[in-house]
Design a protein that fits this description.
Elements lengths: L1 E3 L2 H13 L4 E6 L5 H13 L2 E6 L9 H6 L4 H10 L4 E3 L3 H4 L18 H4 L3 H16 L3 E5 L3 H13 L5 E5 L19 H20 L5 H13 L4 E10 L15 E9 L4 E10 L2
Parallel strand pairs: 1-4, 2-3, 2-5, 3-4, 5-6
Antiparallel strand pairs: 7-8, 8-9
Helix pairs in contact: 7-8, 9-10
The structure holds pantoate.
Length: 284
């Protein structure tokens, strides 16, 4: 496995694969890797001749400077894991390399980037599109792998891929959960043992809501999820929206779409930690 820090070295590392027309998988990450990331990398390794994993804490997608400063940086441990699971190249650029000029580009894909996270984290998806479009241009992947925990991110990037005519296949990968249901996230390490126990109520309620939905309206189900989670001491729902899985437009009836997904963000604990999760009521 090669570890490279510049775009020039990334292109050089990929040259042997390109010249023979081989496939390249890209797994964009911000590091602090866990089993969720590992599952994306394993899939890419299985489906491509070469796998590039980018490890870059992208400053333009953080609207809170404190959050950016606090973001865990564990490149050495990340590389050890990536070597073990068969990545070909780790691309860990500096901020100067990724952004030689301030990025003035504005991406706008409403409603995918304006609803839910878009409303609560202004500019976040613009920053995501800035870095992901750069990574697509640098690595020119055949396939790009993203975890469905960040369900909205996938919808926004899909729109960007269509808009900018990137010639690649988007590969959304299922959420990886702990045995007890908690969705894996780098932020879980910020939870105390007690808070972790409380956080379990998020996935438990989402799973239970699939049964509840069988004989309740969409509006009733949405309210039931919000009330059930808010009734747990230490949890506070920021939003719960039941949306069309492609457009992310909020739905008012189960019949409005064949692809129905519930997306939630919940504050957990004293500090508090912001956790996201989602559930599919109807799969495409
Ligand atoms: O999902 C993430 O970790 C980031 O948003 C991404 C896609 C690596 C872009 O910085």
């Amino acid at each position: 496995m090669k570890i490279v820090h510049t775009v020039h070295d990334l292109k050089t590392a990929l040259l042997p694969f390109r010249s023979e027309g081989k496939s390249v998988g890209l797994v964009p990450t911000m590091g602090a890797l866990h089993e969720g990331h590992a599952s994306l990398v394993r899939r890419s390794v299985a489906e491509n001749d070469a796998t590039v994993v980018s490890v870059f804490v992208n400053p333009t997608q953080f609207n809170d400077k404190n959050d950016l400063a606090k973001y865990p940086r564990t490149l050495e441990a990340d590389c050890a894991l990536l070597e073990q699971i068969g990545a070909t190249v780790v691309f860990a650029p500096s901020v100067e390399d990724a952004y030689p000029e301030p990025d003035e580009r504005q991406f706008s894909y409403p409603p995918t980037d304006t609803v839910m996270e878009g409303g609560f984290r202004p500019g976040h998806f613009n920053g995501v599109c800035q870095i992901v479009s750069k990574l697509f241009m640098m690595a020119e992947p055949t396939r790009a792998y993203f975890g469905e925990k960040d369900f909205q991110q996938i919808a926004v990037i899909r729109r960007m891929v269509e808009d900018l005519h990137f010639d690649l296949q988007m590969v959304p990968c299922p959420i990886v959960r702990e045995k007890d249901g908690l969705a894996l996230s780098s932020r879980n390490t910020l939870l105390t043992e007690a808070e972790r126990g409380i956080a379990l109520n998020i996935s438990k309620t989402l799973f239970a809501s699939k049964d509840y939905a069988k004989d309740h309206s969409l509006a009733e189900t949405k309210q039931w999820v919000i009330d059930t989670i808010n009734a747990v001491d230490g949890l506070e729902v920021q939003y719960y929206e039941i949306v069309d899985g492609n457009s992310l437009q909020s739905l008012t009836s189960w019949e409005d779409s064949d692809y129905v997904v519930g997306c939630i963000t919940v504050f957990c604990g004293q500090i508090p930690v912001r956790l996201i999760d989602n559930i599919k009521y109807k799969e495409q």
